[in-house]
Every structure is written in structure tokens, then in C-alpha cells.
Amino acid sequence: MIVRSATTRRIENIATYAVALGFAAFCVLPLLWLLLTSLKPESDIITSEGVVYIPSKLILSNFVAIWQQTDFPVLFRNSLVTTMVTVALSLTAGTIAAYAFSREYFAGRQSMLLGLLLLRMFPAVVKIIPLFIIMRGLGLLDTRVGLGIAYTSFLLPLFIWLMKGFFDAIPRDLEDAARIDGCTRLGALWRIVLPVARNGIMATTIFIGIAAWNEFIFALILTTSAGSRTWPVGLQLMVGEFQLPWGMLAAGGVLSIIPVVILFAIVQRSMLHGLTEGATKG
Amino acid sequence: MSARGDLGWIGDTTRSGLDRFNPFVHLAKLSEGRFWVAALLTPAIVIIALIVVYPTIYGITLSFREMRLLRPDLGTGFVGLKHYIDMLQDQVFWWSLRNTAMWVVLSIALELALGMASALALNRSLPGLKLIGVIVLLPWFLPNVVAGNMWALMLDARLGVINDILVRIGVLDTFKAWFADPTSAFGAAVLVEAWHGFPFFTLFIMAALKGIPEEHYEAAAVDGASRFQVFRWITMPALKPVIVISVILHVITLVNSPDLLLILTKGGPGNATMVLSLYAFENAYSDFDFGYSAALSVVMLALLLLFAYLYVRASNLLANQ
To answer: How many angstroms separate the CA atoms of B277 and B155, rounded?
Structure first.
């Protein structure tokens, strides 16, 4: 029977919405609680009569306090610079490498691609310790550039993999036509392929950027002073060692994830497509 | 300008005097030569060789050397298998190994179940589900630091909203200190990891579901297949490759990342939530015992390689039956 009865279909639809809304609530309610906490006065967070669900008033002073009384602006700037370094390195080196893997068949191609995948298996610590020693030797320890380079060690291979998927989806005919029209290979790449791959490049870059912005373990080991510390490390120190009020910490958390949420919303369609491309086609 | 010239400006062979100073002209000429592929790959290869391959080899050799920043008197000499032999005697290592296995198995089971349920629901074409499909992926993009501390606040023994709700609906008598008791600390950490990680499976399973041709379902309907039969014989076989790949990728992440447990429990209480990655991290970060930490990492790597090999083999065997 292709057509099921209307009652069965209605029950199925209701069940589908129940499950979907349940998942939506599971994912969003913790975030809303974080947002609510950041807008509550401290007297509504630590109370004598249990948890307060409807605050006596909504305030923005937690946001003002975390921005003015802590070095949060510095942490943000450090994270931004570190992320930029990682993105710049991955974008320039990764885009052309991904293009070569997608279009050219050269000796060692398969084993290099497999090697990129194997790199994922290496525990962070096994790379962080040598990077710590190397960077200390080069004077790059505890610098934003050094940390950005360290992030590139795991984000560049990822960038190449994702970007290769986007290039694979672009028909070769486009370049062939350009070549026939007299384009050089570089001309075809620069004038034809890159503009067509624009969405993919943007999605991959933002994905890498979010990963660098969020990174915690490398930053914890490779930065030691406030001059290069990134916001995840700084925020964790405020929770653990400085014991700042919860309202301020929540405000810091909300501020830090705003860029992530906005960028994710902008490119989610092509980003999600690119992330799953390799796995579903392979 | 002719159409030819318009498309080919970078490689235009009619050279004006200024072209000598245009780097694109030289690059374009290079791109016609035999070093084109090498030129494309060189920057990435150099970067990866310098900051991935070299440090990794260095890290593996470190596991055979003594390197304790707090004990410079010990030197940095070659000690052979000392760290690996020490490991066999190390109670915390065995405890971490057991916890790692539990951490991975419980998290994967829960996340795969949540991912499957959400993907199957969200894959239906009903109004509004697309938006929910995007919302559900949000936790995966959140930083561990925010996800971890947000849940730590919600599970707090004094101000936690989850305690409050559980007391109000009568599940608990009083507020519970979730992270003070070994079992509940482990359970709470798995819950937070599941919240943070399940969208990864949702994403992949949803993409695979979209790839199943509609005709397969229609054919099954014509043949009078039941719901369960359709799922068993059409949906599952199509999902299997994606599930295998996403499980491998996520096991790697779970084994290698100490972030969430470092933020939530620091391995405590006692060593109840100590996993290998966290133990290796603590050895490097708190004790500056780089040699032993590297040895622990090498063991993790070996276990992951063994797992990936066995798992891929097992799933291929099943596929051939």
C-alpha cells in the first residue's frame, strides 16, 4: 500500500514533530539558560530560596563588567589575531593544494591523501610537546603568531580535505573551455575555478576559523602570559582561579559564541554540504 | 579586447614592457610548465612537514627519552623502553585505559542513538523541520569551554537548574553534587559530551538519508514492505558506510581530546573520570614530564590504529555477507 490512511499519517506527523521539538529543546534550552543567567542580577543567581526562573529584572551590567573589569577585550583580540594567522595560512596553502589533489593525478597522490587522514589520529599531546620545545627555541612560544601556526598543524589537513570535496564538485569542462579559449592553467584556476568555488572556500574558511576560535588545549599549553592568551583559556581561568561571579562568566560565554553563531548561520548550507560530501560519496 | 584576451589576460603571450614586473605573468608561464603540480603542493607540504610530520616524529622519539622540565638534573638522554615499562606498573594508566574505553563506548552509543533518532525525524519533509535541523547542529559548533562550563553551572550542587527541576518533579529529594560521586560524575560527563557531540552524527546520517533514491522506497511500497522492513533492508544498508566513517572519526576525537573532561572534572573525583588523553595532558602540563606524556600518547595512537584497522575489517566482513 503506497497510500497510508490519513489517521496513520497524522499520528506519524505528530510523532515526528514531538521528536523534532524535543531535540530542538534539548539543544537550545541550555543556551537560553546561559543567556538568561547572563542577564540576571547576581542576587537572582545565588539565592536562598532556590533557582529563580523569572528574574526580578533583566540587566546588561554583566556584559559591561566582563568587558571593562577583566582583560576580555585583550583575550578577544588575541583570539582574533591567532584565528587570522591560521586562516591565512590554511587558505593560501590549502586552497591550491586541494585544487592539485582534486584535478591532477600525480605519483603519490593516493598515499598523500591517506596520510592527511592518518594525521588526524595523532593525539594532540604528541604534537604539542615538540611544538612547545620548537617554538621555545624559535622565540614563538607564548606568541599569537606561534599559536596560529600551531593550529595550522591540525586545521590545514582538514582544510585540504574539505576544500578538495568542493573542487571535486566543479565540472572539469569549465576549465577545459577556458583552456581552449587560451587561458593558462593559472588563468583557468584564478579566473574560472576560484570564483565558482567561492561558496565552498568561504564555508571551509569559516569552519576552520570557528575551530581556531574555539580551540582550548593547544592554547593552554602554548600560551603562558596575558599578552597572547586566547579567550577560551582566559575564560577558563576566570572560572577556576579567579572565581568570578556566574553572571559575568555567562556574559563572557555569550559574547564568545556570538561570532560563532552568526558565522554558522550565514554559511551553514554550503558548510554542512561540504562537511558530508566526502563521507556520503565515498 | 577579444574574448580570448579577456579570459587569458594572465597568460597573455603578447608581452608589453611592463609584463616583466607583473608576477602573475611569471606565475602563468610557470603554470604551463612541468612544475605546476609541485608549485601548487609545495606550500602545504612544507608547512605540514615542518609543523606536523617533524613534531610528530620528534614526539615519538621523545617517548624513548627522559625529558622532565622540572628535573633538569636527569638530563634528556635516551632511556629506551623505560617509560613503557613504568606504564605497566602505573595504576593510573590502567585506570585511564579502562575509563577511556568506557568513555568512548558510552558516548558513541548515546550519540549514535540520538543522532539516528533526530536524523530520521528531521529527514521527513514537513514544514519547519529544516529550521530545526539547523538548530539541532548548533551544540556541535560551540566551544568546549562554553559547553562544559554551561553544563557545570546547570548541574551545580547549589545553584544548578537541573537539580532544581529534578527536585520539583520528585526525582531527587535534595540537590545532588553530580561531580562529587564517581558514577554520577562519569554519567554527567557522558551526558554533556552527548549533548555536544551528537549533532555530528545527525549531520552525517541526514546527508546519507537524502542520498537514498526515492524509487527504492516506492519499489518497497509496491512490494508491500512494512515500515520495519523498509528500515532494515533499504535505510540501514544505505546508512552503513556513513555510520562506519563517522564512528571512526568520532572515536578519534573522543580518544584524543581531553578538553571536556579537563573542564568538567579534571579527571576526578579520585581518578574516576581520568582518561588517557587527560592523563597524558596532565603529565605534560602539570608535571612537565614530557617523556612519559609522549609515551602515553604513542600508546593512544597505537590503540587508535588498531581500532581503526579492526573496525574497518569487521564492517567490510559484514558487508560481504
So the answer is: 24
- CATH match of A63-281 with 2.60.40.10: no
* Residue B283 domain-assigned (yes or no): yes
Contacts with A, B 138-167, CB within 8 Å? 138-139, 141-146, 149-154, 158-161, 164
Burial (CB < 10 A; 0-12, 13-18, 19+), residue B20, is: exposed
Contacts of A170 (CB under 8 A, 6+ apart): A193, A196, A197
Q: In terms of residue numbers, what domain contains B137?
A: 89-320
User: Which amino acid would we find at residue B273?
Assistant: T
CA distance B183 to chain A (A): 23
Shortest distance between the Cα of A9 and any Cα of chain B, in A, equals 12
* CB B55, CB A218: distance < 8 Å: no
Say yes or no for a CB contact (<8 Å) between A24 and B221. Answer: no
Q: Where are the alpha helices (DSSP H) in B123-225?
A: 129-141, 144-154, 161-168, 182-210, 214-222
Q: What is the mean pLDDT of residues B128-141?
A: 89
**pTM across the whole model:** 0.87
C-alpha closest to that of B256 among A154, A158, A205, A156: A154
Quote the distance between the C-alpha of residue A20 and its chain's center. Answer: 25
Count the domains in chain B.
2
Q: What is the pLDDT of chain B when averaged over all its residues?
A: 86
- Identify the pLDDT of residue A278: 60
Domain coordinates in residue numbering, chain A: 1-59, 63-281
| ipTM field | 0.88
| A160 neighbourhood in chain B, CB within 8 Å | 44
Q: Looking at chain B, which residue has its C-alpha nearest residue A31? A: B150
What confidence tens digit (pLDDT) does each residue in B206-248 have?
888 888 888 888 888 888 888 888 888 888 888 888 888 889 8
Exposure string (b/e) for B137-172, b if CB count within 10 Å is 16 or more? bbbbbbbbbbbbbbbbbbbbeebbbbbbebbeeeee
- A166 CA to chain B: closest CA distance, Å? 16
